[in-house]
Every structure is written in C-alpha cells, then in structure tokens.
Design a protein that fits this description.
heterodimer, A: alpha+beta, Thrombin, subunit H, 3 helices, 12 strands, 38% helix, 25% strand, globular, B: 79% helix, transmembrane (chain A), membrane (chain A)
C-alpha cells in the first residue's frame, strides 16, 4: 500500500465524491448508448447470485408458510363454507366442460382441423424479484440442462405472466404483464375484437386501442392474440374490469404477487423480441 | 503490513478490526440481497438500501467511503433493472448530503433524525423519478416514487434500531481495543 502524505490523502478523499458522481453520470450515458452492455452485466450478476438466492429462499418460504398457516387456521370455517359452495359450482362446470370437449372433438374431426403441435416447456423457480420502482420483473433460476430462449412465454398455473427478455447461463429474467414497457396483443373473447394490453406498473394492466363499437364488457375474458407473431392465440390472460372512471383494465388470472413456479413455453415464434 | 509473524492476539485484533470495517458495507449488501427475494412488495430493495446508507453515512462515515457507495448503487441498479447510473447517483448524493448534515444529526434525538431522513428519502425518490423519466424521455407516474419514499421512511426505524445496536457494540469493542 502506498503511503500518502496527510494533506494529499485528505484532498483525494474530498475529491472522490465529486469524481464518483461524475462517473455516475458517465455510467448513465454508457448505459443509454449501449443497452446490451447493461443487459449482460445484469445477467452476469443474476447468474452469480441465483444459487445464493435459491438457498436463501428456503427459510423465507418456511416462514411465509407458517404465517399463512396461522392465518388459515383463523378463517377455517368461512374458508370451508366458501370452498363447499365453489366446489358445487365447479362440479356443474366440470359437466359442461366434459360435454363441450366431446362436442369440440367431434366438430374438429368433421372439419378436418389441422392439430397444433404441443409446445415444449420447462418449469423454473422464481428466486428473486427483478423489478424496482419502475419495473416489474422476476428472476428465474434455470438449470444448465434447460434451454431457455429469449421470447419464451411465461405462464403460472392460472394464466399468462410475462415473457423472457434476458437469458443468462443459469438464470433468466421475465418481464411481467404489469411492467410499464409491456405491450401484449390480446383478443376480447366475447366480441373477438383485438386490443393492446398495456402495463401500468399497477396490479391491473390497461386495455387500449380496441376497434370502435366493440367496447370491452365488464367480466369479458381476455386471451392472447397471434397478431404480430409474438404469442400463440388463446392463452388465458384475465377478465375485463371497468374502473369508476370508465377505463378498461384487466384483472389477471396469473397471481403475479406470489409467483413461485413458472412454465416457460417455447413456441419458436419469430415476432419482435423486446 | 509487516511480514514478521505477529503474535496471535495481534492477528486476531487485526482480523477483528477488518471485520468491523467491512461490516457496514457487507450488511447493507446482504440486506439488499435479502430484499430482492420475492416478497410481493415491489421496490423493496432501494427502500432497504437508502436507510442503511444514510444511517452509516451519519453515524459511521468512515465505514462507507464513496467508492463503496458507488458499488452498492451499481448493484441496486443491476438488480432492479433501473437504467444503470441512476441508483449510483441517488445513493452518492444521499451519502453526500447525509455527510454534510452529520455533525448536526449525530447529536439529535431519534425523531429529528427520522424527520431529516424522511426529507432525504423524498428527495431521493424525486431525483430517481426525474432521472428515469429523463433517460427514458417520457413522463412516468408519480405514485411508485411516492410509495418508494414512504416504504423507505417506514423501514427506517426498524433498520436504525438494528444498526444502532451494532454500532454501539462496535464502539464498545473499539474502546476495549
């Protein structure tokens, strides 16, 4: 270590803050000029941290599970009544679905519909929240034997969650539907009208650009559209909800606030990658 | 460092001093990594980083030299997918301001320090919002920045309690050494 004289040492110490602030500005310009560099740095850090997060996750998950258990015990009776009622309703839907599936198979046979290839998928665990104040994303830990491609579609057990935008050697980043930069072509199932689903950084993304005359109706189902070749058609997204001011928002099927496992479907669609 | 074999007590003391020097930055980094675990609370990481940074800047300024603050800011930017440099700038300026105020703040009661921190957190959130809007060249909603500041202010008392205990323990150890 070089020994500096005391005044020089003090002068350097006083200068280091302004110099580093200038470096911060430089970093901002660099990040703006070369977005790929920032992406690579992000994924390198995520790759390095993914195993540690995977290990840290266990105790946190155990704690959350215990808290959830305690809360569940308190609402056992009401929850039981609700489930009984829901079970009754679902039994009815199960019958309807079975008869519709049989009818659908029959119609497909009669029409000679070309069967769609079942897409391959890998399942990956969410290990960290990759978002900040103005970003909604999660980091997945992917094994070395799991080939994840940029643009793969991420779904949780209930519906569409987002898309893979960055891939590292053992982690991947999924930008969620709620992110400010997320734009998804969707279809309103009732009117077959197309629209865009625009992330607003809140829990419910907003619907925009539907054709005039086909207003989204409250409670209407929203699915993905194959427009722009970025998504396959028909993946479940959510239900339309009108706000008090009349804006159309979508209540997502996917539970983005408690993502645990995500299935990454690779449809090999050539659409515009983010 | 001398090359001679130091007595064991001297080595231990040196290790102890090294651990004390690394603790503030290391603990801040660890808390940031823990805050990145999926919790359902968006924006938790910056809201944990700022209170830690301000606390150490006020009460133990030697523990977090500007280059370390730069590194912590960079980690924050990379983990929160913010444009690189924004978090660096916010943390460095917060560090600078807290350093300016430290002679005043270090002697005040907790409530006043908290109030000063609230002002600082609001300023940091506004600066972060401004920088991100400027870099993306578009208007951004104010609500997330507001929430971010509120979260940081709400987390400060708990974190400060923990860090004060550590700080006092370190001071006792230093007095003994």
């Amino acid at each position: 270590m070089i020994r500096l004289s005391v005044p020089l040492h003090q002068a350097l110490a006083r200068l280091s803050l302004p110099a580093l602030i200038a470096a911060g500005f430089g970093l901002m310009l660099l990040g703006k000029a070369d977005a790929l560099l920032a992406e690579r740095a992000r994924m390198a850090l995520a790759d390095a941290l993914a195993p540690a997060w995977g290990a840290l996750r266990q105790p946190v998950l155990a704690l959350q599970g215990a808290l959830g258990e305690a809360a569940g015990l308190l609402s056992l009776r009401t929850e039981n009544a609700r489930l009984r009622e829901e079970n009754e309703r679902l039994r009815h839907w199960q019958d309807a679905a079975a008869s519709l599936a049989a009818e659908n198979a029959l119609l497909r046979r009669q029409l000679g519909v070309l069967p769609e290839a079942a897409p391959g998928f890998v399942t990956a665990r969410v290990v960290a929240d990759g978002g900040g104040a103005y970003a909604r994303a999660v980091l997945l830990s992917t094994g070395p034997g799991q080939p994840v491609r940029k643009g793969a579609v991420a779904m949780d057990a209930r519906g569409l969650a987002g898309r893979v935008t960055e891939v590292g050697s053992r982690s991947a980043r999924v930008v969620l539907l709620t992110d400010l930069n997320s734009r998804i072509p969707v279809l309103l199932e009732g009117s077959r009208a197309r629209a865009m689903l625009v992330g607003t950084n809140t829990a419910r993304p907003r619907l925009q650009y539907w054709p005039s005359g086909s207003e989204p109706q409250e409670g209407e189902r929203v699915v993905t559209s194959a427009e722009a070749n970025a998504f396959p058609a028909g993946l479940p997204v959510g239900l339309v909800r009108r706000t008090a001011s009349g804006a159309a928002e979508v209540e997502l099927f996917a539970r983005l606030d408690r993502l645990d496992l995500l299935r990454l479907f690779d449809y090999r669609l050539p659409g515009i990658l983010p | 460092m001398s090359g001679r074999a130091a007595p064991l007590a001297g080595l231990l003391r040196r290790l102890d001093a090294l651990a004390r020097a690394l603790l503030p930055a290391g603990l801040t980094l660890l808390l940031m990594l823990l805050a990145a675990l999926p919790s359902g609370l968006p924006g938790l990481l910056p809201a944990v980083a700022l209170p830690c940074l301000v606390f150490w800047s006020v009460f133990r300024p030697a523990a977090l030299p500007p280059p370390v603050v730069f590194g912590l800011g960079l980690v924050q930017d990379l983990l929160t997918a913010a444009p690189p440099g924004t978090g660096v700038l916010v943390l460095l300026l917060a560090h600078g301001v807290a350093g300016r105020w430290r002679r005043l703040l270090a002697r005040q009661r907790f409530l006043l320090v908290w109030l000063a921190f609230a002002g600082l957190a609001a300023g940091a959130a506004a600066l972060g919002l401004g920088l991100q809007a400027l870099l993306g060249w578009r208007l951004l909603p104010v609500a997330p920045a507001f929430w971010q500041a509120l979260l940081a202010i709400g987390l400060y008392p708990g974190l400060a309690w923990l860090l004060t205990r550590l700080h006092e323990a370190m001071r006792r150890a230093e007095a003994m050494a």
